[in-house]
Amino acid sequence: MPQLDLSWFLVNFLLAWSLIFVIWVIINIQTWNTQNTLNNSNNESQNLPQENWNW
Description:
The chain has helices at 2-41, 43-54. 95% of the residues lie in helices and 0% in strands. By secondary structure, it is mostly helical. This is ATPase subunit 8. The chain crosses the membrane at residues 6-27. Keywords: Membrane, Mitochondrion, Transmembrane, Transmembrane helix.
């Protein structure tokens, strides 16, 4: 029985971390899309920091 409990604990652990990973990826995709739209709409303002970084 302890082996069964350990296996169930590992399964639940992996399921929880996979859910957290999926949620994290979804949040990152949403933020990346918003940053992309902001960069596309503000190309002139985005060029200024890039020139400063080149210095």
